[in-house]
Protein 1
Amino acid sequence: MNVFIIYFLIYAIIGTAIAVASKRVGIKSARDYYIGGRKIGGILAGATYAATTYSAFMMIGLVGMAYSTGVGTLGFELSYLLSTVAILSTVGYEIWRISKERQWISPSQMLGDLYGSIFLSKFIALLYIFAMIPYIAAQIQGLGVIFQIGGMSYESGVVAAAVIVALWIAIAGMWSVATTDLYQAILMLGGGILFLYVVISMILPFGGSLRAIEVLASSGYLGIMPFWSFPVFLSYTLPWIFFAITNPQVISRLFIQRDEKSYKMSVTFFAAFGLLYTLLAVMIGLFARYLAINGIIPSGLGGNYVTPAILSKLSAIAAGFIGISIIAAAISTADGIILSVSSAIFKDLLGLKDKKVELIATIDVVLTVVASILAYLHPAYIVDLSVMTSLLLLPLAPVTIAGIAFKNKLGKFSRASSLASIISGVTIGVYGLYANGAGRIFTSMLCGLPTSLWVLLISCLVIVIGISLDY
């Protein structure tokens, strides 16, 4: 039997067993299903936050970015990590604290409640569907590609991904997702460490890591390369800096910790995991460039093809385990997104009562099937919308920060401007995509400024005007 399939079956069986074991906590309400009844401890909460946040992008996209653009990639990714820890320690903590008082179970419900607008919560729920389903599809597409590398068909990867995603969510909601995320976080780190080890082994015949550092430095890859101009760096980092308060799958993880100690522990766990995983991905990418300089892999690879090129040079055993760790990253992200979008549909679009648990699985399955069909069909716009996800959700950042900061002082003008802020920001983002295309959205400028900066500036201006009128 194919080594990769053996690995995958072991991975799926262990994960399913963990998910089934988590069901013992009992799921009696939507609150239990979507946010674990606010009873999840620090390590588990930190692991599910980390595994959901760090998708297959890290060991594929970020590796390729470091290979292509050098150590500037580290600055880009560390900007995200540091800003996220800062947000989690301030605005995030307030979200956790207030969520216990107001019993939020969905991120769109949170904003609707803060501004006193049911229409706002429904609109944001629709935005989540539009922005996140293509992103889920992109994760499932990634699994299809990994299956192809492992000697299987793309279609079998899509089907396997759909089954696991739906199953691990349906078994016990947040509990089964969080426990399998801890398992997958361990796999992700293990796969990353093995990946770095085998890459270092590959460069040993060419002088080892010290020689690699010398060559990379002399080639400019350990300095700020032309790609990372300040406008481009700003364009890439702005959506990521506010990721913690714009993306539903991570906002919902601010509702789950059982107490303050657990919350602080979850932030610490995430920070440690994020730093290690980021360093692994960037180092792999830089050493991959050294392999290209020595002719082991092609020098002109596109970013998403660097990891497959390296894996093709490895033994089936090593490549299979690394491939499974990337699958774990994709599955954990897809699970987290579907669970959070499902909560928005359940609570805000359909307005269902907390006890209607039997309807939740149907919502989850429909979301999984739709995303899987899109992944199978490979429509071109999925790539565009996946790239656009961060821009489409960026207008939620100023609205969220303002809502938390002025939660008891928001009136009719704030309510109206919150919706106008989001619509104006999304419109600018969509225009940027139309004008520049997905491939250039973060490197092209609008009137000399990055599209993401325009989105943020206009969204901020609109919400500030509304709040000032209420004062």
Note: The two ends are 69 Å apart (CA to CA).
Protein 2
Amino acid sequence: MYSPGFACRIPPAMFKFAKDNVSVLTVLDTRRSKANGLYPIKVQVVHQRAQKYYSTGKELSPEDWKRLPMAKNRELKEIRQSIENSFSLVKAAVEALAEKGDFSFDTLNLRLGKATGGTVNTAFKTKIAALKKEERIGTMLYYDNILKNVEAFGGPKIAFEQVSVDWLKRYEKFLLKDKNHTTVGMHMRAIRAIMNEAKKAGIIRESQYPFGKDRYEIQTGESRKKALTLEQIRQVVTFTDGRETTEKYRDLWFFMYLCNGINTADLVKLKYKNIVDGEICFVRQKTERTTKTIKEIRAIVTPEMQTIIAHWGNDRKPDHYIFPCITGSEDALKQKLMTKDLTKRINKRMKFIGETLGIDGISTYTARHSYATVLKRSGANIAYISESLGHNDLKTTEHYLASFEKEERQKNAALLTNFGEKV
């Protein structure tokens, strides 16, 4: 029944409703006519200056739209009744959400979807479409991948009521055939986000909500954090096999390590204008949209970084990207795919270097964790490490560095049988 649309110039509304700063009205969308010269009639919802438009499936000329409120013509009366039915459906959903204090366009879309046969699948698809429109491509691909797995297990039409504790346990078992517990946790958190919106929208009752204590609890596994020692890093950055490709990706990895463990998505978007007074200043894309306070990260441009820029960088102009990985003319999806491809190529080359040197599991993530861990080993203040990583609080950093390193565990294990020494 519904499909989000866009703002447009419109004649006066015919049906209107407002509650708790949410307005609902019927409008004629005169932005673009159909092939037959008519314009679509939509239900407009306005909340906090944002507007969404929902189709009624009807269309009219501006002249007939003006005549519609008082029309005696049978055809126009039937159109008016159909429009009122669509309006009433949206109005009822908005009114229910506003009364609960839970109004959002996500919950409205879910509630309307349920009223017209919506499923968990359609909720995922609506979420994916919204993320694409917001150009949050990484999160969009994350939800898209999970939807594929959800449908491989549950089919193309999964009712919200089907997602029970038992269903989640069976889905977990299905995933564990070829995925680890960390991946399972990611899947379950995405499903929980969809179910949270469904609960807010009134699609499921609290008693039907499957997550939480004494229900399905999402397990959080400790990921194995790999960090290199300074000696290993020295071996890596001085390694050469005489091939330009090896040296290029080795140097980009080294730059990521030196630039506060920057990730590939932020690396490719660095421009020369980000270099201010000898520091690279940037905001992590990962947190840019998800935190109220935007944290700027500053990384000193070391002589090693200057050498890498001089060798592999673009011409030094303020609006030029430092490294020629993207051009800026690509859309958000294309940039994301190019970034993923670059990450893959760096990881492949670093794996080769690691295998040659006998160092296991070097990747772009290793650069970030090594940056933080080298500082930790050197006695750097955790508040400084937290700020340089772009974390929002010290707890995040403490969790990030929580696992003892293997060398520390080996040293402590040896103490347990150190019988020849006095304690």
Note: The beta strands are 16-19, 22-28, 39-47, 50-60, 275-276, 279-283, 296-300.
Protein 3
Amino acid sequence: MTNKMESIQQIIRSEIANGLIKPGQKLASIRKQSERFDCSLNTIIRVYQELERQYLIYSRPKSGYFVVAKEALLPLLQTKRIDFTSAAPDPASIPQTDFRQCLNKAMELFESSIFTYPDPQGLLSLRQEIVKLFQQQQVFPSAQQVFIFSGAQQALHLLAGMPFPNGKTNILVEQPTYWGMLAALKTQRQTVIGIERTPDGIDWVTLERYFQSNMIKFFYTIPRFHNPLGTSYTAEDKQRLIELAKANDVYIVEDDYLADLETNSKADPIHAYNGASHVIYLRSFSKVMLPGLRLAAAAVPTSLIPSLQWHKHAADLSTSVLSQGVLEIYMKSGMYAHHAKQMKSLYNHRIKHLREISQRLLSKEYLYTIHSCGGLFTSIHLPDFIHTEDLVKRLENRGVDVFATDNQFLPSFPKLNLLRLSIMRTDEQDIEEGMRIIAEELERVQYTSSSPKPFFRL
């Protein structure tokens, strides 16, 4: 079947799945469909014959083609799900046997601590291991400056609500940004200001003005493999950012949640650019290990330690000893480094494949951050005339799950019409099939819209 025929077939199939053509309803005539899709009568005849072979439609002599009954359609329209939404690791990629061994060992080694309330800042032995891990990223805290949290979400929640030594109260965030940070800020009822981040970076003039005039307590940023954009700051950007922060006494909360996936050995975090006095360096372990362990770690400036200790203790008394023990054993045994290396290779291969397929199937103007390298996420920019919710629903009906980024913007900030794509639970076949379906649905919008812009390269 040619690409043109397959595209037309999938569009009609999608219309049936979405209920635009009801069971028992007559399909448009062969002539009308040939005019609609700008193709020959023979092409439509072959498309209808193929749909008939799939038992989705049937013909009545001298009457045309009709959709079969709903009960017969359901199993035929069900498809394998292609998950471009998930931000959690594929269970198949996690060495669960290794974790069970570490859990059993943790029960043995930390038995006495399980029956007490340990240091709310985290087990000292684990913090010492975290220091070694951070040093690999050119971040050099003392163990006293390291905090262990019950997931990065807890860290963000506490930092959003606690006072900072600069005495300022407002918080600046990139737009778009991680939805969990926006949720934490909303629950804390903080005054939040947004600043646009594009594939080209950030508006430095606006950033400096905000730093100088808006009483910014801290600036929350994801400099590496941004969520949802997938882009990273350059070395020059990081240097400039820390200089502005120190000059204006603004703290930076650096969410380096994908440091383990970096393929460029020279890509250091902001903290490494002489930022120890004004950077809270935050690392999560959810993307490489089990999210259910609920663990994250941060290196904080000395000036923040007393206040953060009090707020952490008030929040949960202490982070799970068992989870901390599992992570410590996993790191000390070398399992963590080995597994992180495997995950880096796996995810890097997938994101490269997504980029190659997307560049082949989609027009350039819609490849918002497809050109970026590494990480887990990339994004597609849709024109304003496309109703994102409708497109997401159509893709869902065809077995493709995508993530609209509306909740990654502040309510008051102008939203971009973006779809975020994740490769965490896809393989090469999923990526190729999923992007083909996305391209076909975009083509369908072109057919039904007055816009002349091309979406799909046939």
Note: The longest helix spans residues 335-361.
Protein 4
Amino acid sequence: MHLRPFDRLDRYALRLFAIPLIAGVATMLVATMLGRLLRLFDIAASTGAALPLVLLMAAELVPHYLGLALPVAFTAAIFMAAARMCDDSELDVMLSTGRSIARIAAPYFVLAVLLSVFNLYLFGRLQPLARYDYHVRMDQALQTNWDARIEENRFIDIAHGFSFRADTVDEGGRSFRGVFMSRRDGAVEEITTAERGRLEAALNGQGMRLQLEQGVRMRTTDAGEVTTTRFDSGYFQEALPANSPFRDRGAAASERTLAELWQTMCRTCEQGAAAEFHSRLARSLIPPLLPLLALPLGMAAKRGRRTPGVIFASVALLLLNHSLQFGKSLAESGRMPAAAAVWTPYLLFALLSLWIFRGSLAWPGDNPVSRAVAGVETLLERARPLRRARVAP
């Protein structure tokens, strides 16, 4: 079989597909991440974590939600492109020139293969690393509170040679008025006073820093020299408590890459690693099945079957996602082998998609879903006269 390069019609089909795909991915990311973002800002408000740390945590969540958004957006984009071609009678023109449904779907299958390659990187490496980084930053945010108990008008020793005192301390123990700090290192002594101070997380997430406003710093050297510095705003971080280190990556199977999961499976036959490995691999290979489902349902839009097609595709993707998750849980608990538990719903979805696609090859818009909807409508129409006859006196 001679493989021809993409022609003008293929490029046109991809242009119809590109904008819905970008809009779908952006919409799905915003919709799915909004609730988590609100939760992150709530944690930041309660712990006093710095805004850059919160934004970094939100960025670490993008790979996870991108893995959920891509299949839905990819399916919706193909559906909308096929519906557009049907509504404008462009599909009829393509078919009249001898172009088959399979040939029309070719550029979408090529993109699906490329998306599967990207998914292998997304699910195999990017997601587990981002998940671990998210937990590290979340631990830093939760450890932001200063362990030292600060009482008003009481000197406390934060570290060796470093004392701190505040005239007024707010209820959260993070904002101060009338700050006095003294630090001695050998013969060098440094005294800092400030009208206001606030304790917050360091920008790099390591330890704490104290923001001071309207202050004076006096430093005495071992030679007896005294220097005085006035400042409107400044930061002090030395000798403040640092966060305890987070655990090493890999304690959970979800934090390991595909290569690490494969090594664990070969070395220890761990059920959790096998379940995670097969689940990620199955999710990576979903895109080639999506054109088989979305294109026939989109072509049915010309006959007024658009809404049932959207509902059917949404339900099918939802069931596939939950089935893969359920199969992974069965494999982790040891009730089923990982390969059977994960790949069974994948194969069922593949057979369903292939059946729908083959059913539409004879005539565009005619597929098992549209025929089922037409059959239900016929039954309802036949039932109406019977219902009227029963109601009539």
Note: The first strand starts at residue 156 and ends at 159.
